[in-house]
Amino acid sequence: MNAVLVLNADLGPLHRVPVKHAIRMLLRQVAEIHEAEPDRLIGVFPMPRVLRLVRYVVTRWRYTTGPAWSKVGVLRRDDHRCGYCPAPATTVDHILPRSRGGRNTWKNTISACYACNQRKADLTPAEAGMELRFLPSVPTWASTAPR
Ligand SMILES: [Zn+2]
Fold this sequence. Notes:
Elements: E1 4-7, E2 13-17, H1 19-27, E3 31-42, E4 45-53, H2 60-65, H3 71-77, E5 91-94, E6 109-112, H4 114-120, H5 125-128, H6 141-144
Parallel strand pairs: 1-4
Antiparallel strand pairs: 1-2, 3-4, 5-6
The chain binds zinc ion (ZN).
Zinc ion binds near residues 82 and 85.
């Protein structure tokens, strides 16, 4: 994993860039090294792990829409915990089932273990008598980034 995390000037995470791109940002002095690999140089720079933009960029759209929905992203957001029981989750459940018009959105999906997913089937949690252990949220970019 040699991608470099770019932080906004207020330290809010923005996105990851390849090392080459990170070096170009350093050369153009639009970013500074926030965290580097110990004892590794790339040209004249320490090998960057995290960059910080020199100037704050407004990225309001990121906070309103969040990252694109994905099953992997849902599992990562929920830390692979089932939304209905204490078991580890391997599947993603649609809270309002797809067959009833439920969509692939962050707020309509939650991680679930296989057993809970089967039990809930195409019912709503209320119909199935199942309670959500936590509420699904729109994740930040950082929480869905690979670690
Ligand atoms: Zn479960």
